[in-house]
Fold:
Amino acid sequence: MATVTHNQTRRGRRVVLDDHLPVDHRLRRVYRGGAGLMGAFLVVFGVLGLIDRIGFFSTSGSMVMGLGSNGALSVASVLVGGLLLAGAVIGGNTASTVNIIVAVAFLAAGFASLAVLDSRFNVFAFHLQNVVFSFVTGLLLMTFGMYGRVSGSLPHDNPYWQSRHPRS
Structure:
């Protein structure tokens, strides 16, 4: 597969891909490990919830691994866990980006579920433990995704610092 650089053009327009993001072999273990661990946990949680045959949109749900669950949450957990595992398999910047995006989704889900806790709109049968789990998982995934990528004091040999400060 040929890559397009900044100097090549196609039909007179400059084509720029994500080649400004460095691929750092030392940090990919953090991105992949975080995505893999969290993805595996979510898949196991979702499969156990599906095996339990809980009502799909039951607002009371059932307890699975200490967390409230229903069929919808189980399916969502398997899908999101699969996405994280796919990011872990691909690795590199993809794993980092997937971690960050899923982290934001978990934090948003935590706030949304906190708003509908103990109401008929609680379609994922969340309990307070689920809210705390969403926040903790979101923060962990954010840490895994941004590790070595975002900081005010990155060392000068860090590839992300180098990509932001090209030598002229």
Remarks:
- Strands lie at 9-10, 13-14, 62-64, 67-69.
- The first strand starts at residue 9 and ends at 10.
- Helices lie at 28-51, 71-90, 92-116, 128-146, 159-164.
